[in-house]
Automatic annotation (TrEMBL):
InterPro entries attached to this UniProt entry: Arm-DNA-bind_5, C5-Methyltransferase, C5_DNA_meth_AS, C5_MeTfrase, C5_meth_CS, SAM-dependent_MTases_sf
Protein name: Cytosine-specific methyltransferase
This protein's encoding gene: dcm
EC number in record: 2.1.1.37
Active site location: C207
GO molecular function: DNA (cytosine-5-)-methyltransferase activity
Record's keyword annotation contains Nucleotidyltransferase: no
Length: 735
């Protein structure tokens, strides 16, 4: 067992003594200069720590702890059992050089256009930053992307962003840690954008609870994220926007959700063209039912308003319809009935509820948050919450008003007026497209033809159908299918699909992605790369394995001359020259550690295996030998190694992985009975090795609801090479 300690050399003329690292092992001694100096009075020789509470003392102690950890890891936790002195010195000096070089770099806070034409982008629901990373890798004919703002609700997403883009790359990209559903979100986002024109918005709002209007909802925190995403689009009006989601969204509720999403996107209007539509509506309104057409005009005018003015506009709409009812009341009910009748009161009080939509929406948000915090679901409380939240929705209030009108004995002369009031209230809750459908039903053939011409000019975005993209078609060693809704502003070239960069035969294999990381065992962590001898590791199959390695372009396309292997690209990095890192990659435990300068500068990050017990290792060995969990079941039962775990995915070296999720224990390494490291999962997602996932490595239990550890960051991310392909296609056509 080696002992590791620090000692001071003779002070220089200024009184500062160099700190040296000393290792004693079996009578041999290795000395390495740390490159750090300190006044002897400020160093505790017994504790081998700098004394005092100054920032300088704190940084020195963190640096010495870092070196002690790396020396201990090398000597006591490495696969290699013996080292010569020069090897130990070489490895430690490599760590020292890497740390000193990186820690002395100042952060650059401005993006300077070095060449070409920059286009700006914003990344919503950013997570780790898969979209961001891919967009910064893209370049076409001297066009590239500038990163303006990312948004997510989790602290570790923010930490990973700040370390990667602000500290490591030196960009001035902002991060907004806020729920997109909060009332002041848009104002805060616009504050971060600071007046810049945004060319592209990307992001994947979770649509798990997206439901059709009129259906009872689960009312969880994800219910309305899609519509809030579209609100951002309406305000920023980017040239393109990309919305990513799971493939299941296409078939949800028999495809009606997909149709509704497209309808909502088509409902985004060019506010400059609205006066033309309003003139048309007023013109035909004069010829027939002016009240109903005035209601449609008021609904269309809401599209012009900024988010902060919309509540006033909605209240004005309800007041307009309510005034119509007040004038009608004496005609359909006598004085006594109008004051005491339950149905009249239902209608009257319904208007009060609708006029205070803002207050009810706030209450609804707060209740949903509390419901989610208390885990109210699949219990005897859930229905009561759902019933109340359904009760206060605008759609339900209008439905009750409609039922009240039906029960009232309204003279036939005024039945049409009552129906118009109900139609107007329904217009209030419709999308722009749905209100236009109501308008069309009141137009003749000639008027509808004129209306279609106006609508062509008023629709801001073009989209016909979503596009299903498999990540493996873009150089990612993973079969991950995602749906992309690409909205193209009417003044831009239409993009309906993203061309594949590799054919089926050219796809990147798991072995290409992971072979050079296969040098650690169970419960080990590596902070530097080691040489891999394929011949020694694979014996009889070495030639077959070696043939899997191909030289490729960044996008995965194999090429005969030049190029790099997938693993080499991962190590070198795929960012364009303008975004090359200013510092070496580093890891911090949390935001406080970042503020205190507690950075771990390593050559390799996030490469730690789980501490699995012997039973689990034996189980994984049986599964690996059989090639799949299903085939291994009989043998597992025979050996008493069965488990309740639903599935294990055995990686096949010559294939692509299945969709990478957030739990590493779901996967079995192709060559060892173990789960994957964060770095290996990141490789399968196509993240560069220089992209470090920050904070906790994993979490469990109820913490999964609030924490986003490294494995979750990786599993939820958009593969950067897929994002790169999307960004490159946009750069080809963007004006």
């Amino acid at each position: 067992m080696a002992t590791i300690n620090f000692y001071l050399d003779k002070p220089d003329k200024k009184g500062f003594a160099p700190i040296h690292l000393r290792i004693n092992c079996n009578g041999n001694q290795v000395k390495v200069s740390t490159g750090q100096k300190i006044e002897p009075k400020n160093f505790n020789k017994t504790k081998q720590k700098a004394i005092g509470l100054s920032v300088e003392s704190h940084e020195i102690n963190h640096y010495l702890d870092f070196l002690r950890e790396r020396a201990d890891e090398l000597l006591h936790h490495s696969n290699k059992k013996t080292f010569v002195q020069d090897e130990v010195k070489s490895v430690l000096n490599e760590h020292i050089k890497n740390y000193k070089e990186s820690n002395n770099v100042n952060i650059v806070k401005e993006q300077v256009a070095l060449y070409g034409k920059p286009f700006t982008f914003v990344d919503l629901f950013a997570g780790a930053g898969g979209f961001s990373e891919g967009f910064l890798q893209a370049e076409h004919n001297n066009k590239f992307f500038d990163f303006v703002v990312a948004n997510d609700i989790n602290e570790n997403c923010e930490l990973t962003h700040v370390v990667r883009y602000n500290h490591q790359l030196g960009l001035d990209a902002e991060f907004l840690k806020q729920d997109i559903t909060e009332p002041d979100f848009l104002d805060n986002l616009l504050g971060k954008i600071d007046g810049r024109q945004i060319d592209v918005v990307c992001g994947g709002p979770p649509c798990q609870s997206f439901s059709l209007a009129g259906k009872r909802k689960k009312f969880d925190k994800k219910d309305d994220l899609f519509s809030h995403y579209l609100e951002v689009i309406k305000v920023l009006q980017p040239k393109y926007f990309v919305m990513e989601n799971v493939k299941g969204i296409l078939t949800k509720e028999k495809g009606k959700i997909k149709e509704l999403i497209i309808k909502e996107i088509n409902s985004i209007v060019d506010t400059k063209e609205i006066p033309l539509l309003i003139s048309f509506i007023k013109k035909i309104g004069k010829e027939s039912n002016s009240f109903l057409f005035d209601s449609i005009v008021k609904r269309v005018e809401l599209e012009k308003l900024l988010e902060k003015d919309k509540e006033t506009g909605k209240a004005d709409f309800i007041t307009f319809v309510e005034n119509r009812f007040r004038k009608l009341t004496p005609k359909i009910a006598d004085y006594k009935t109008s004051k005491t009748d339950e149905n009249i009161n239902t209608i009257r009080h319904g208007f009060n509820l609708l006029a205070r939509t803002k207050e009810w929406e706030k209450l609804k948000r707060d209740i949903i948050k509390e419901k989610d915090f208390c885990n109210i679901d699949s219990d005897n409380f859930a229905n009561a919450f759902t019933d109340f939240l359904t009760e206060i929705s605008s759609e339900n209030v209008i439905s009750k008003i409609e039922d009240a009108f039906k029960i009232l004995k309204v003279p036939s002369t005024y039945k049409k007026d009552c129906e118009d009031i109900i139609t107007s209230l329904k217009i209030y809750t419709t999308s722009f497209d749905e209100s236009i459908e109501i308008l069309k039903s009141h137009c003749d053939t000639k008027q509808n033809k004129e209306l279609e011409t106006i609508l062509e000019s008023i629709r801001l975005y073009k989209i016909e159908k979503p596009f299903v993209a498999n990540a493996s078609d873009y150089g990612v060693p993973q079969n991950r299918e995602r749906v992309l809704f690409i909205g193209c502003r009417k003044d831009q070239k239409y993009i309906s699909e993203i061309p594949a960069t590799v054919s089926e035969e050219e796809k990147v294999t798991i072995f290409e992605a992971l072979y050079d990381l296969d040098f650690i065992g169970n419960n080990q962590e590596a902070h530097r790369y080691e040489e891999i001898d394929i011949s020694a590791q694979y014996n009889g199959t070495a030639k077959k394995m070696a043939k899997l390695l191909k030289k490729r372009r960044i996008d995965g396309k194999p090429i005969s001359k030049g190029g790099k292997s997938f693993a080499e690209w991962s190590k070198k990095g795929r960012l364009i020259e303008r975004f090359k890192p200013l510092t070496k990659p580093f890891y911090v435990r949390n935001s406080e550690a970042l503020e205190n300068g507690e950075k771990y500068f390593d050559l390799l990050n996030n490469h730690k295996t789980s501490n699995q017990n012997e039973t689990v290792i034996e189980r994984l060995g049986v599964i690996l030998k059989n090639g799949s969990y299903k085939k291994a079941q009989p043998e597992l039962e025979k050996l008493n190694l069965s488990t309740n775990k639903r599935n294990y995915n055995v990686l096949k070296p010559d294939e692509q992985s299945s969709t990478i999720m957030t739990i590493a224990d779901d996967y079995v390494h192709y060559n060892s009975p173990r789960s994957l490291t964060v770095r290996e999962m990141a490789r399968l997602q196509s993240f560069d090795d220089s992209f470090v996932f920050q904070g906790k490595r994993s979490t469990g239990g109820n913490n999964r609801k609030t924490e986003v550890p490294q494995y979750t960051l990786v599993g939820n991310a958009v593969p950067p090479l897929l994002a790169r392909a999307v960004a490159s296609e946009i750069l080809k056509y963007i004006k």
